[in-house]
Amino acid sequence: MNQKEILEQTYIDHADSLFRFVYFRVFDREVAKDLTQEAFFKVADYLMQGKEIDNMKAFLYKTARNLIINSIRDKKPVSSLDMLHDTINFDIADTQTSQYEQDMAEVAEILESFKILKPHDAEIMQMRYGDGLSVQEISDITKLSENHISVKIHRLLEKLKTHHTQHEKE
Amino acid sequence: MKKNNPNIEELNTKMHHVSLSSEEKFDMLQNLRAHMNTQPVPSPIFVSPLFKHVFAYSLLGAVLITTGATSFAAEDALPGDILYGIKTSLNENIIQAIALSDTAKARAEINLIDRRMEELSKMAIEDTETPEKIDIVLEKITAHKIDFDEHLVEVAKEEPSERTIEMKAELEAVIETHLEILEMIEDREDIENQKNESLESDRASNTESGDITIELPTPIDSQSQTLEASVTVIDTVSNSELKDATVEVSIDISDLEDTKIEKALNLITNESLGTEVEFEENQPGTKTRIEIRQRIIEKAEKELGIELNF
């Protein structure tokens, strides 16, 4: 495959998941679209310079992550609950709105619950459970060892469950 | 407060409600393809730094032998010419490939900026410049300047600081040399704009429609092969645009003969200018807008045999 074919295949494989990755961090559909496209442009530029990419998915997400950081650096943090109101207005094909609203409410609740964690830990949890990235992919993106990531995820999951149980008793 | 047990393991599944629509996905893919097409495809051999220099010279030789005439002719090409692509991609890629050190690469970018400025000068002298052509050149100058800055950062790491100052001065000298030409283009555009404003003002003053007049810019987007007109209803008393009173007209002219394109443009102009504007209190301009659209649709189908989209 030449560079263009590689890139198109990457786009077909990852456009939606990368869009979600960006969306659930910036909580703005238009901004998410722009940043997703920008990430693919950057990967295209890189490929067109003849450079090789070992792990395309990790490279793509790493690029998007840098773009997100630059994009939200100077902006006010947005609550997941605020995000929910915007999200409900989306056009959803073949989806019953009530189920959709219910699921989005749960998404918002889970993302809110991550706020008890340190930002870096919350990011790892969102990558693992929100974006469905493997431990190896998270390791590639964050530059932390796979073992470190695995242990962290296990402990953070426990921490979240404990916190939830305590919160329920209250 | 009662909280449901959030199922973290299902987070990914629930997030799947959010996705790009088919249209958005298609548009983005088209943008990506267009972006890729603006970039030269590297030959695998050029990827290796070891062979880069040797092959750049070999390619230059091959170009001169096999396509020498075309490549040479392309050197005089300007934006809008068929050979301009050969000049800016093939010929200039060779110039860039030959430059090995960061200093040489930065200098190559200065030379390329010089070539672009030269093109602006030629167009100004030959009076062939258009906003689209100028944009093409300015975009390329911006890209060269970005590359120049990147190389300069590398130069600063390895060379004495005098070298970067010297190179910046070189670039400034190149720009200043051509500045006079750019000012010439700008002056000419100002004169054009003044003429157009005066023409529109004449048209508006000839339009009798009570307190309302119609402003009619009619740009033709030749690149997308679409003729577009925008009619905005203006309240001449307050000199302000009526809210939501713009008529957007778009005609696909890719399959139309030149005479029909001209007719279509005249049709939009005449129909819009002759309109008596009425508006309702709650929705100013709405009725007028619908009437203009309807008349244009009917006439276009009857007189030109074309179907319009709004």
How do you describe this structure in short?
Chain A is an all-alpha fold. Helix content of chain A is 77%, strand content 0%.
Provide an overview of this structure.
The complex is a heterodimer of chains A (170) and B (310). Chain A is 77% helix and 0% strand. Chain A has eight helices and no strands. Residues 88-95 of chain A have low confidence and may be disordered. In chain B, strands 1, 2, 3 and 4 form a four-stranded antiparallel sheet that branches. In chain B, helix 7 packs antiparallel against helix 8 and helix 10 packs antiparallel against helix 11. Chains A and B meet through helix 1, helix 2, helix 5, helix 6 and helix 8 of A and helix 1, helix 2 and helix 3 of B.
Count interface residues per chain for the largest interface. A-B, 49 and 36 residues
What structural class do helix, strand and pairing data of chain B support?
alpha+beta
Largest sheet of chain A: none
Number of helices of chain A: 8
Mean pLDDT across every amino acid position of chain A: 82
Instruction: Give the termini distance of chain A in whole angstroms.
Output: 58 Å
Radius of gyration of chain B: 28 Å
Q: What level of helicity do the residues of chain B show?
A: 55-70%
Feature tags:
heterodimer; A: 170 residues; mainly alpha; B: 310 residues; alpha+beta; 4 strands; 9% strand
Topology:
The complex is a heterodimer of chains A (170) and B (310).
Chain A: H1 3-26, H2 29-48, H3 56-72, H4 80-88, H5 97-113, H6 119-130, H7 135-142, H8 146-169
Helix pairs in contact in A: 1-2, 1-3, 2-3, 3-7, 4-5, 6-8
Chain B: H1 11-15, H2 22-37, H3 44-47, H4 49-66, H5 68-74, H6 84-98, H7 102-126, H8 131-158, H9 161-205, E1 212-215, E2 220-221, E3 226-235, E4 240-252, H10 258-273, H11 286-304
Antiparallel strand pairs in B: 1-3, 2-3, 3-4
Helix pairs in contact in B: 4-5, 4-6, 7-8, 7-9, 10-11
